């Protein structure tokens, strides 16, 4: 079972979307569909066919962790400007597998208690257990994004954090976690359209926050901060993937494919019985 | 929007399935389908049509909690003998809504740290926040079920726990939590079939535990312990619902209907905008 074989992807998503050395965010078109022919209907078919595969991989990963000491787990880190579609990814990609095998951590503005600790304190508590697919909806990267743009910490503290993040993630990887860091990249114009839609539908008002427009005024600063994040923290063991996100179908398919290719590399198998199957059948039959 | 209107239920599930005064577990046929005509295909149609409703209610409940101080939340407590279908409920009923609005707590055998505290210590930490649908996959009831059957605590401690549970749940209800306590009721024969199936399929081995057969030998004692649980803890504010579970489609539909009727009583509405919509549209348009 290979992820690519059932998709219209022309190359490994893990290669195509990786923010490697020399990556320049401003060169990437948010409406492009790298690695895919770009047809929405094909993309939606791919998404549907990928769900069954993801489901299967997830169950095997989970099953193996219950009866063996396999340490493998997956952590999907989602970062983006507001309205870029993190929620849709959680809902339509991750939400398609058994919720018992998924842990979702949504990181809001830190509480006073959280602020009294190192920035990684609240993050450490939410890393996924073996067998799980963990999702960080925002993450420790907020502390070098909004932290930098809004000067919430001194410059030397922000500097320190890049190194601390790399150490932290290297430790996660060493303990069996595949870390998939995704930035959903939307355009300035697309964000306006999406925020405007929230203002046009009473069932979307709750998603709108006047502060979103204030953040929007800092768009160039945020793009700079992301660029620096890629330069400082897209490491060999935990690279960044930048997913053009103006087309929702593409962003969902791309993240699904990143998950599938990662799980394919783990290639979890159904665990063998750690009991005598025939003896148990006999024992059960007489009850 | 009413839950009943789109279903083939003849009466409120909250009434039909309630373990009220005089309820006798051994009188309830695990293969029966109370409240429903009993056709599997109709039941599956009902389940599918209920999903969209559940989804809608869940999003409204969640939305309201983000922008108002509405305290409402739902806690679904699932208890059952092994293989009765708790996992399927989590997967196919709860798993159909946005995972961001769901918190699932699975309670295993207590750790030494948990045992060093009162039995409700680990439970309190997992109660759902406002706007959430929480699921307890096993719960504090284990401490008066296996706790009693296996004599894991002295008799007077078990006695104390019924009262402590009632106090705890009354407090949850007072703080805006709708507590839906469900026992999935399968028959002794159906359990044998389901365990046997796990022994016949290598992709199911991981779900089988030889200890399950040992527990099975204590079936009558467990049924007695459940009967006592209903007598002592099926309170006015947090009643028990006993769902015949030999037919998976029925059990799933029944739990979905319990959730729908509970959410219907909360009847969460989309929250009003707490900002000036027109002013925000203008402010956004010029960015």
Explain what the structure shows.
2 copies of one chain form a homodimer. Chain A is of the alpha/beta class and 287 residues long. Chain A is 48% helix and 11% strand. The first copy, chain A, contains 12 helices and 5 strands. In chain A, strands 2-3-1-4-5 form a 5-stranded parallel sheet, sandwiched between helices. In chain A, helix 6 runs antiparallel to helix 7 and helix 6 packs antiparallel against helix 10. Chains A and B meet through helix 2, helix 3, strand 2, helix 8 and helix 12 of A and helix 2, helix 3, strand 2, helix 8 and helix 12 of B.
Concise account of the structure shown:
Two copies of one chain form a homodimer. Chain A has 287 residues and is an alpha/beta fold. Chain A is 48% helix and 11% strand.
Report the span from N to C terminus of chain A.
39 Å
Q: Multimeric state of these chains?
A: homodimer
Q: Output the number of helix runs of chain A.
A: 12
Q: What structural class do you assign from the helix and strand content of chain A?
A: alpha/beta
Mean pLDDT of chain A: 95
Q: What is the H/E string of chain A?
A: HHEHEHHEHHEHHHEHH
- What is the general shape of chain A? globular
Largest sheet of chain A: 5 strands, parallel
Biggest sheet strand order of chain A reads 2-3-1-4-5
Task: Give unreliable regions of chain A as ranges.
Answer: none
Radius of gyration of chain A: 20 Å
Fraction of residues of chain A in helices? 40-55%
Please report which band the strand proportion of chain A falls in: under 5%, 5-15%, 15-25%, 25-35%, 35-45% or over 45%.
5-15%
Largest interface: A-B, 42 and 42 residues
According to DSSP, the number of beta strands of chain A is: 5
């Amino acid at each position: 079972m290979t992820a690519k074989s059932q998709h219209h992807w022309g190359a490994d998503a893990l290669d195509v979307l990786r923010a490697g050395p020399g990556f320049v965010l401003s060169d990437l078109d948010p409406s492009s569909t790298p690695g895919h022919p770009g047809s929405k209907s094909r993309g939606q078919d791919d998404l549907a066919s990928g769900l069954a595969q993801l489901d299967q991989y997830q169950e095997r990963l989970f099953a193996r962790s219950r009866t063996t000491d396999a340490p493998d787990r997956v952590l999907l880190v989602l970062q983006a400007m507001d309205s870029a579609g993190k929620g849709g990814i959680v809902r339509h990609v991750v939400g398609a597998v058994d919720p018992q095998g998924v842990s979702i951590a949504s990181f809001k503005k830190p509480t006073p208690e959280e602020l009294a600790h190192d920035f990684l304190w609240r993050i450490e508590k939410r890393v996924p257990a073996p067998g799980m697919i963990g999702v960080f909806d925002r993450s420790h990267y907020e502390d070098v994004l909004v932290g930098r743009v809004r000067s919430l910490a001194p410059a030397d503290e922000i500097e320190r954090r890049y190194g601390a993040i790399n150490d932290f993630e290297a430790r996660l990887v060493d303990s069996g976690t595949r870390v998939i860091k995704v930035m959903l990249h939307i355009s300035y114009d697309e964000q306006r359209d999406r925020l405007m839609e929230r203002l046009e539908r009473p069932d979307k008002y709750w998603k709108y926050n006047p502060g979103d427009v204030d953040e929007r005024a800092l768009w160039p600063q945020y793009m700079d901060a992301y660029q620096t994040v890629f330069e400082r923290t897209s490491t060999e063991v935990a690279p960044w993937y930048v997913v053009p996100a103006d087309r929702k179908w593409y962003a969902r398919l791309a993240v699904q494919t990143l998950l599938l290719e990662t799980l394919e590399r783990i290639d979890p198998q159904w665990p063998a019985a750690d009991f005598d199957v025939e003896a148990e059948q006999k024992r059960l039959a007489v009850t």
